[in-house]
Design goal:
The chain has about 650 residues and is of the alpha/beta class. It has 17 helices and 19 strands. The longest helix has 21 residues. The C terminus is likely disordered.
Length: about 650
């Protein structure tokens, strides 16, 4: 039972939740049942069929509706006397500025991407509002506490580049090629060749349905004696043509996005198939159905070649035909990365969809590496993490600084523990976000344009949405809705000028001030002129120092990973837990010998009974050398250096 002090803090609190998905549903339910009276929710997503297995506030009838609004309605049914304010919007919209954030006592994140997390982190810092971060994937999860001046901010340490992505955007607004891969593998492949009774987010209604009875007809059902080539073109036109046109009919979705392009089979130039009859006969007679290849039929030999739209379309249609003519278990198939034809089909389908949405195409080799990297969500983990978020929120409301904890949820017990609490780390003095440490940019000032600096550094690396760039008192670049036409034209012209030819020339030794007024973030960049860059090792033609770059997963052959990302290498038993997605978390192999070890501090008396047997000898490690933000579990029992506690 909560104490009177806790109940008082809870009832008087005004809480902002960002995200109403897997974690968000559990979090809203837990907040309501814990006594919180004033809750605000921001979420831009609508409900998909695939959400229903873990986001328990939603039902089949809610598909297509706002997550934030439906979540509110569901919770008010069992807590009718509390106030829940939903916003079906993007947290990066200008309405959600620093003043908006200042009205809350604490912000609770259940987001599914790095960009939005960084944005909320900066707004919380500017508003002086504590932030509780979270994320889950499968059985793994974490909750971290970020209080300005007392603990590190979300960006004090780099985050491993995410390899997996949220499911919610896959069917509606893909922006990365991996979204297209997941769509092709988990939706289209499953619908065509998998169990017919499974739930699927693909629209199956025929484009020429004219009556209510016809509207229920499933386009994917192949009619008796229907020609396979005609069936293939029907599927092609439906998923790449009609469904895209259907999506375009929702104009609100595309106000701030590039519109996709419908693609129909009639728009594709037919490719004449080479004579491969002998080879195909050999393949089919050999009995190894996993080696049947549409590529072989098309005369495409190199899996690292990038196929054109015509080639992808031809492979798609040929692969579909081969599945129905060579496979006997249509209706029970599942994707297998070792099945050549399955990989070819998914690659071709993903590339056609990518072409429609203006996303760069990928080779078969690249696509195969992406296709097996999806980790499905576990509702129980979301519930555990939601509970931990609320516990930390209550501590923040009581200003119980000594007992703040970052907690990591593990898949397998370590020292008989599945929940690993850790004292928050102090702010990183070199963090350009919360410590305003100057950055250094090596760049060729006589060759690089201002556009290169804006796109590759200010937006891509520093994550600014509405940047303003100044050299002394000279304003070089600004974006915003309140600019005059001549100002917009002037800044657009500056973008195409090399740095040394700007109205206020940028040279070696120049100090630029870069600011995002929405995030209230300002930093200084020291320009260091450099003539040459290695095109292979330094493809951007510029190097930013003092910024914490994303950590990439192992790319060499020394460390192999299982399907869930766990290291199978004998090099090191340490693994770093990284949570970047609501539904997607990655385990990055950690090299031995890097960074200093830190000991879990004594837990509060309330938690001691659960963890007393392990609190003394369980160690964690922060990989300070590489700047890894995430803890790793050490089983070697070695002693670590003492950890600096946050100021109280």
């Amino acid at each position: 039972m909560a104490s009177e002090q806790q109940l008082s803090a809870i009832k008087g609190a005004k809480v902002l939740m960002v995200g109403a998905g897997g974690i968000g549903c559990e979090l809203l339910k837990t907040l309501a049942l814990s006594g919180f009276k004033d809750i605000h929710i921001i979420d831009m997503d609508t409900i998909e069929v695939s959400n229903l297995n873990r986001q328990f506030l939603f039902r089949q009838s809610h598909v297509g509706q706002s997550k934030a609004k439906v979540a509110r309605e569901a919770v008010l049914k069992f807590r009718p006397h509390i106030s829940i304010t939903p916003y079906h919007a993007n947290v990066k919209d200008p309405d959600f500025n620093v003043d908006f954030f200042k009205q809350f006592n604490v912000v609770l994140n259940g987001l599914d991407n790095l960009d939005a997390r960084r944005h909320v982190n900066r707004l919380c810092l500017a508003a002086g509002v504590p932030l509780v971060e979270s994320g889950t994937t499968g059985f793994l999860g974490q909750v971290t506490v970020h209080v300005k001046g007392k603990s590190e901010c979300y960006e004090c340490q780099p985050k491993p580049a995410p390899k997996t992505y949220p499911v919610c955007t896959i069917t509606s607004t893909p922006s990365k090629f991996v979204h297209c891969i997941v769509w092709a593998k988990d939706l289209l492949f499953a619908k065509l060749f998998g169990a017919k009774n499974q739930e699927n987010d693909l629209n199956v209604r025929s484009s020429d349905a004219s009556s209510s009875s016809q509207q229920t007809e499933d386009v994917f059902e192949r009619k008796n004696n229907e020609d396979i080539e005609q069936y293939g073109k029907k599927i092609f036109d439906h998923v790449f043509g009609y469904n895209i046109e259907l999506a375009l009919s929702n104009e609100d979705t595309w106000k701030n996005r590039n519109k996709p392009r419908p693609i129909y089979s009639k728009d594709i130039t037919p490719i004449e198939l080479p004579h491969q009859n002998g080879n195909q006969a050999k393949i089919s007679v050999g009995g190894d159905i996993s080696s049947v290849s549409a590529m072989a039929s098309m005369g495409l030999k190199n899996p690292q070649d990038l196929w054109s739209l015509n080639e992808n379309s031809a492979v798609f249609l040929e692969a579909l035909k081969l599945f129905f003519s060579k496979r006997e278990k249509i209706g029970n198939l599942s994707f297998d990365k070792d099945d050549q034809l399955a990989v070819e089909f998914v690659t071709a389908a993903a590339n056609i969809r990518a072409s429609s949405f203006g996303i760069p195409l990928h080779s078969l080799f690249e696509s195969k590496g992406i296709a097996g990297n999806i980790i499905h969500a576990v509702a129980t983990t979301n519930a555990i993490i939601a509970g931990l978020i609320v516990i930390e929120a209550i501590k923040i409301l009581q200003n119980d600084t000594k007992n703040y904890r970052m907690t990591y949820c593990l898949e397998h017990p370590s020292r008989k523990m599945l929940l690993m609490p850790v004292e928050p780390f102090e702010p990183n003095k070199s963090c350009y976000v919360c410590s305003e440490t100057p950055l250094t940019l090596e760049i060729n000032a006589h060759r690089s344009k201002l556009r290169d600096l804006v796109d590759k550094i200010v937006k891509a690396k520093l994550g600014m949405n509405l940047p303003l760039i100044m050299h002394g008192s000279a304003l070089l670049y600004e974006v915003g809705d309140d600019l005059e036409e001549d100002e917009v034209a002037n800044y657009a012209a500056n973008l195409e000028k090399v740095l040394s030819e700007l109205p206020s020339p940028v040279m070696g030794g120049t100090i630029l001030t870069v600011e995002d007024l929405q995030q209230e973030l300002k930093c200084s960049i020291n320009i260091k002129h450099r003539e040459e860059f290695d095109e292979e090792k330094e493809p951007d033609g510029m190097i930013l120092s003092g910024w914490t770059p994303a950590l990439a997963a192992e790319k060499n052959g020394n460390t192999s990973t299982t399907e869930n990302g766990a290291s199978t290498s004998g090099v090191s038993q340490a693994t770093s837990l990284m949570t970047e997605e609501d539904d997607d978390l990655q385990i990055i192999p950690t090299q031995p010998g890097g960074g200093k070890k830190r000991k879990i501090s004594d837990l509060s008396s309330a938690a001691t009974s659960d963890f007393s047997s392990v609190a003394k000898d369980t160690k964690i490690q922060r990989k300070d050398v590489d700047g890894n933000n995430d803890v790793v579990m050490l089983d070697d029992g070695s002693l670590g250096n003492s950890k600096k506690k946050i100021e109280t």
